[in-house]
């Protein structure tokens, strides 16, 4: 099975050498690990793991035995494989080559099991997880400012919904201009406020759209009338697509100086799927799919599958960052609180229900993840001022900047005296 998947994953003319684990290695995995990796939604994770066992070129046994050559080789996954030169078993043949027969390619890989060093993140790396929440995502902008203020070296980002767009804006900008890009984005989506109140402004947005993001669809909601053709959403997002196209440098994004994973919910299988710029070229469709909140926005088709907003099932895309071990600092930025007082009004109850729909997801995701010995921080937006049901669609300029300020302060506090804090902690 391993070799069949590896052969399909390799690109180029070769030759390639595959360091394939024996059956005993698979049997040593925790129960359910292999089944989880083989799910369609974990294709990117599985491909990465496979690539960390593949070396471009013919790596022969004699080249690394008895001190006759290097004992470390770089894999196609960007990790170093340590090949023992002191009696460990190594492949006797060049491995997978397109010109070789299937039988010849399989033999050396099932007969030996070199010791491989699992890909491990250095202590100075930071991985950042960005959750969804529409206009609440301005919090991520302030948090990123605090991350840059602290001089952290971010090497991986994962994003769901608005988090995926923020990740693309960051990774798609030059290192010295990322904050400028994020602030410019907020200036484009921020709406002026005159005499109209916040709730009225949100109601207007949900009725008439947003000048920089989405416009009412036709027939949209009027499909319920006799004779009207069917529609798939209440709004069209061509405005948002134009803005993304203007502000995200997809070439730079896919250069993968920062690894970016975007998640989306497969509308038919019900599985979260991860798209990673080290495995596939991220496009406009991936960002639109990750934020396709039904019934407001049209589902997005990629290949043969149709996708909804990832936040419906996994608003905090933490699992894609846990596909490899290491000492990296993991920062999970969340936009909804799990615990807070309940206001006994229709608006208060509606607001709390919305918060719990997403915050409870995050709690379950974190509970299911193995965070033992991980340097993990769960950083949550907490703002009594935003205690009303429509807050996720409040794009008021002042409100957005207030969230930026909160993000910077809360993240700064989370990072303060990091070494003195316990391994896993929630900060809000």
Protein described:
With 428 residues, the protein is of the alpha/beta class. The chain folds into two domains: 13-56, no CATH class; 126-417, Cytosolic phospholipase A2 catalytic domain (3-Layer(aba) Sandwich). It has 15 helices and 15 strands. The protein has helices at 2-9, 23-27, 33-37, 43-51, 61-64, 102-110, 138-149, 162-171, 178-189, 198-208, 238-247, 250-255, 284-290, 346-368, 397-415; strands at residues 16-18, 54-56, 72-74, 80-82, 125-130, 153-160, 215-216, 235-236, 259-266, 272-276, 300-302, 305-308, 329-334, 375-380, 424-427. The strands form four sheets. Strands 5, 6, 9, 10, 11, 12, 13, 14 and 15 form a nine-stranded mixed beta sheet that branches. A two-stranded antiparallel ribbon has the order 1-2. A hairpin with a 5-residue loop joins strand 3 (72-74) and strand 4. The longest helix is centred in the last third of the chain and has 23 residues, at 346-368. The chain is globular and about 75 Å long. The two termini are 45 Å apart.
Tell me the CATH topology of the largest domain. Cytosolic phospholipase A2 catalytic domain
Counted up, domains total 2
- Proportion of strand residues: 15-25%
Structural class: alpha/beta
Return the CATH architecture of the largest domain. 3-Layer(aba) Sandwich
The count of strands amounts to: 15
Contiguous runs where pLDDT drops below 50 for at least 5 residues: 1-5, 90-118
């Amino acid at each position: 099975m391993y070799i069949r998947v590896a052969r399909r994953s390799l690109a180029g003319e070769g030759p390639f050498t595959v360091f394939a684990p024996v059956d005993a290695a698979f049997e040593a995995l925790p129960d359910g690990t292999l089944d989880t990796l083989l799910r369609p939604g974990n294709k990117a994770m599985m491909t990465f793991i496979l690539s960390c066992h593949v070396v471009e070129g013919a790596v022969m046994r004699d080249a690394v035995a008895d001190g006759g050559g290097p004992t470390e080789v770089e894999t196609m996954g960007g990790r170093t494989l340590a090949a023992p030169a002191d009696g460990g078993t190594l492949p006797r043949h060049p491995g997978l080559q397109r010109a070789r027969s299937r039988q010849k390619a399989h033999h050396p890989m099932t007969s030996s099991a070199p010791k491989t060093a699992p890909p491990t993140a250095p202590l100075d790396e930071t991985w950042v997880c960005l959750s969804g929440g529409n206009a609440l995502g301005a919090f991520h902008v302030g948090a990123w400012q605090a991350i840059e203020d602290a001089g952290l070296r971010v090497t991986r980002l994962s994003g769901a919904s608005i988090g995926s767009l923020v990740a693309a804006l960051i990774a798609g900008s030059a290192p010295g201009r990322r904050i400028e890009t994020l602030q410019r984005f907020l200036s484009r989506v921020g709406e002026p406020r005159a005499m109209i109140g916040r709730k009225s402004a949100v109601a207007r947005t949900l009725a008439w759209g947003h000048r920089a993001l989405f416009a009412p669809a036709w027939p949209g909601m009027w499909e319920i009338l006799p004779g009207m053709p069917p529609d798939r959403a209440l709004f069209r997002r061509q405005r948002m697509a134009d803005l993304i196209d203007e502000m995200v440098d997809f070439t730079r994004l896919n250069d993968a100086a920062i690894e970016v994973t975007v998640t989306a919910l497969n509308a038919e299988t019900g599985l979260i799927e991860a798209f990673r710029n080290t495995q596939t070229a991220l496009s406009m469709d991936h960002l639109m799919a990750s934020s396709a909140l039904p019934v407001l926005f049209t589902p997005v088709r990629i290949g043969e599958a149709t996708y909804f907003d990832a936040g419906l099932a996994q608003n905090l895309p933490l699992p894609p960052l846990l596909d490899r071990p290491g000492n990296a600092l993991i920062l999970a930025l969340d936009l909804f609180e799990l615990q807070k007082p309940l206001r006994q009004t229709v608006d208060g109850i509606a607001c709390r229900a919305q918060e719990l729909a997403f915050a409870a997801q995050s709690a379950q995701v974190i509970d299911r993840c193995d965070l033992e010995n991980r340097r993990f921080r769960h950083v949550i937006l907490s703002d009594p001022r935003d205690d009303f049901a429509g807050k996720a669609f409040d794009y008021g300029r002042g409100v957005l900047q207030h969230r930026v300020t909160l993000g910077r302060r809360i993240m700064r506090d989370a990072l303060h005296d990091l070494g003195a804090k316990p391994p896993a902690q929630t900060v809000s």
